[in-house]
Write a structure and sequence with these properties.
This protein is α+β, with helices and mostly antiparallel strands and 176 residues long. It has four helices and five strands. The chain binds zinc ion.
Protein backbone atom coordinates (compact mmCIF):
# COMPACT_ATOMS: atom_id res chain seq x y z
CA UNK A 1 0.00 0.00 0.00
CA UNK A 2 1.43 3.37 -0.97
CA UNK A 3 1.47 5.94 1.78
CA UNK A 4 -0.49 9.14 1.58
CA UNK A 5 1.47 11.99 -0.01
CA UNK A 6 0.70 14.41 2.81
CA UNK A 7 1.53 11.92 5.59
CA UNK A 8 4.93 11.56 3.90
CA UNK A 9 5.37 15.35 3.58
CA UNK A 10 4.56 15.77 7.28
CA UNK A 11 7.13 13.14 8.26
CA UNK A 12 9.72 14.97 6.18
CA UNK A 13 8.74 18.29 7.84
CA UNK A 14 8.17 19.74 4.38
CA UNK A 15 7.54 23.52 4.29
CA UNK A 16 6.83 23.42 8.02
CA UNK A 17 5.44 26.51 9.70
CA UNK A 18 4.07 24.93 12.89
CA UNK A 19 3.46 21.50 14.38
CA UNK A 20 2.19 19.94 17.58
CA UNK A 21 0.93 16.48 18.51
CA UNK A 22 -2.31 17.02 16.60
CA UNK A 23 -1.67 19.20 13.55
CA UNK A 24 1.01 20.11 11.02
CA UNK A 25 0.94 23.49 9.28
CA UNK A 26 2.82 23.97 6.02
CA UNK A 27 3.12 26.46 3.17
CA UNK A 28 1.00 25.39 0.23
CA UNK A 29 3.10 24.17 -2.66
CA UNK A 30 0.52 25.70 -5.01
CA UNK A 31 -0.34 28.91 -3.15
CA UNK A 32 -3.31 31.00 -4.18
CA UNK A 33 -1.63 34.00 -2.54
CA UNK A 34 1.58 34.80 -0.70
CA UNK A 35 1.35 33.04 2.69
CA UNK A 36 -1.29 30.42 1.77
CA UNK A 37 -1.10 27.76 4.51
CA UNK A 38 -2.36 24.20 4.81
CA UNK A 39 -3.44 22.87 8.20
CA UNK A 40 -3.28 19.08 8.28
CA UNK A 41 -4.51 16.80 11.05
CA UNK A 42 -1.63 14.41 11.85
CA UNK A 43 -4.14 11.57 11.98
CA UNK A 44 -4.75 10.39 8.41
CA UNK A 45 -8.38 11.12 7.63
CA UNK A 46 -9.98 11.95 4.30
CA UNK A 47 -13.08 13.85 5.36
CA UNK A 48 -14.00 15.86 8.42
CA UNK A 49 -16.68 13.34 9.50
CA UNK A 50 -13.86 10.93 10.36
CA UNK A 51 -12.72 13.20 13.19
CA UNK A 52 -14.34 13.24 16.63
CA UNK A 53 -16.22 16.37 17.71
CA UNK A 54 -13.55 17.33 20.24
CA UNK A 55 -10.80 16.91 17.62
CA UNK A 56 -12.64 19.18 15.20
CA UNK A 57 -13.14 21.66 18.01
CA UNK A 58 -9.44 21.67 18.95
CA UNK A 59 -8.25 21.82 15.34
CA UNK A 60 -10.49 24.78 14.50
CA UNK A 61 -9.38 26.67 17.62
CA UNK A 62 -5.87 26.32 16.23
CA UNK A 63 -6.98 27.29 12.71
CA UNK A 64 -8.36 30.49 14.20
CA UNK A 65 -4.99 31.21 15.86
CA UNK A 66 -3.17 30.49 12.59
CA UNK A 67 -5.48 32.90 10.82
CA UNK A 68 -4.72 35.51 13.49
CA UNK A 69 -0.98 34.90 13.01
CA UNK A 70 -1.44 35.46 9.25
CA UNK A 71 -3.16 38.80 9.94
CA UNK A 72 -0.48 39.91 12.36
CA UNK A 73 2.65 38.71 10.58
CA UNK A 74 1.74 39.27 6.93
CA UNK A 75 -0.51 42.28 7.29
CA UNK A 76 -3.39 40.49 5.57
CA UNK A 77 -6.66 42.39 5.21
CA UNK A 78 -8.70 39.18 5.46
CA UNK A 79 -8.39 35.39 5.38
CA UNK A 80 -10.36 32.68 3.64
CA UNK A 81 -10.59 29.45 5.66
CA UNK A 82 -11.53 26.65 3.27
CA UNK A 83 -12.14 22.95 3.72
CA UNK A 84 -12.89 20.90 0.61
CA UNK A 85 -14.84 17.96 1.97
CA UNK A 86 -15.01 15.28 -0.73
CA UNK A 87 -14.05 15.10 -4.38
CA UNK A 88 -17.23 16.85 -5.52
CA UNK A 89 -16.21 19.80 -3.34
CA UNK A 90 -12.89 20.12 -5.13
CA UNK A 91 -10.84 17.93 -2.80
CA UNK A 92 -7.97 16.51 -4.81
CA UNK A 93 -5.85 14.89 -2.07
CA UNK A 94 -6.74 11.92 0.09
CA UNK A 95 -5.72 13.74 3.30
CA UNK A 96 -8.04 16.26 4.94
CA UNK A 97 -6.66 19.80 4.95
CA UNK A 98 -7.84 23.24 5.86
CA UNK A 99 -6.60 26.11 3.72
CA UNK A 100 -5.86 29.44 5.38
CA UNK A 101 -5.50 31.96 2.58
CA UNK A 102 -4.35 35.49 3.37
CA UNK A 103 -6.34 38.06 1.42
CA UNK A 104 -5.53 41.59 0.45
CA UNK A 105 -7.63 44.24 -1.25
CA UNK A 106 -7.45 43.79 -5.00
CA UNK A 107 -5.53 40.47 -4.90
CA UNK A 108 -7.62 39.25 -7.85
CA UNK A 109 -8.96 36.09 -6.21
CA UNK A 110 -12.66 35.58 -6.75
CA UNK A 111 -14.74 33.11 -4.79
CA UNK A 112 -18.10 34.52 -5.90
CA UNK A 113 -20.83 32.50 -7.62
CA UNK A 114 -24.08 33.22 -9.37
CA UNK A 115 -26.95 32.80 -6.88
CA UNK A 116 -29.42 30.04 -7.76
CA UNK A 117 -33.15 30.79 -7.84
CA UNK A 118 -35.18 28.24 -5.88
CA UNK A 119 -38.95 27.87 -5.97
CA UNK A 120 -40.98 27.98 -2.73
CA UNK A 121 -41.53 24.24 -3.07
CA UNK A 122 -37.84 23.45 -3.50
CA UNK A 123 -37.05 25.61 -0.50
CA UNK A 124 -39.55 23.87 1.77
CA UNK A 125 -38.47 20.38 0.65
CA UNK A 126 -34.85 21.20 1.41
CA UNK A 127 -35.80 22.75 4.72
CA UNK A 128 -37.81 19.70 5.80
CA UNK A 129 -35.03 17.27 4.96
CA UNK A 130 -32.37 19.35 6.67
CA UNK A 131 -34.39 20.05 9.80
CA UNK A 132 -34.88 16.34 10.33
CA UNK A 133 -31.21 15.52 9.74
CA UNK A 134 -29.99 18.40 11.92
CA UNK A 135 -32.06 17.55 15.00
CA UNK A 136 -29.16 16.23 17.06
CA UNK A 137 -26.32 18.50 16.07
CA UNK A 138 -26.19 20.00 19.56
CA UNK A 139 -24.81 16.71 20.97
CA UNK A 140 -21.04 16.83 21.48
CA UNK A 141 -18.63 13.89 21.51
CA UNK A 142 -16.39 14.66 24.49
CA UNK A 143 -12.71 13.82 24.68
CA UNK A 144 -12.20 10.56 26.61
CA UNK A 145 -10.90 11.18 30.13
CA UNK A 146 -7.10 11.00 30.46
CA UNK A 147 -5.84 8.22 32.74
CA UNK A 148 -5.14 9.62 36.22
CA UNK A 149 -1.70 8.99 37.71
CA UNK A 150 -2.05 7.84 41.29
CA UNK A 151 1.23 9.33 42.49
CA UNK A 152 0.41 12.84 41.25
CA UNK A 153 0.91 15.38 44.02
CA UNK A 154 -2.41 16.71 45.13
CA UNK A 155 -2.29 20.26 46.37
CA UNK A 156 -3.40 20.31 49.98
CA UNK A 157 -6.75 21.90 50.37
CA UNK A 158 -6.44 24.97 52.56
CA UNK A 159 -8.65 24.96 55.61
CA UNK A 160 -11.07 27.84 55.75
CA UNK A 161 -9.44 30.65 57.71
CA UNK A 162 -12.19 30.85 60.29
CA UNK A 163 -11.63 27.25 61.33
CA UNK A 164 -7.90 27.80 61.58
CA UNK A 165 -8.45 30.72 63.94
CA UNK A 166 -10.84 28.70 66.05
CA UNK A 167 -8.28 25.96 66.20
CA UNK A 168 -5.63 28.43 67.41
CA UNK A 169 -8.02 29.88 69.97
CA UNK A 170 -8.73 26.40 71.28
CA UNK A 171 -4.99 25.81 71.52
CA UNK A 172 -4.57 29.08 73.47
CA UNK A 173 -7.42 28.13 75.80
CA UNK A 174 -5.48 25.10 76.80
CA UNK A 175 -2.44 27.10 77.88
CA UNK A 176 -2.71 27.54 81.62
ZN1 LIG B 1 -2.36 11.12 5.03
Amino acid sequence: MTECEFCTLMKGKMNKVYEDSQIFVMHSMQPATFGHLLVLPKKHVMIIEQLADYEISEIFEKVNKISTAVFESLGAHGTNIILQNGVAAGQNHSHLMIHVIPRREGDGIDFTWQPKHLSEEEMSTIELKLKEAAKNIGAFEEKPAEPVEMDTKVEKIKEPEGDEENYLIKQLDRIP
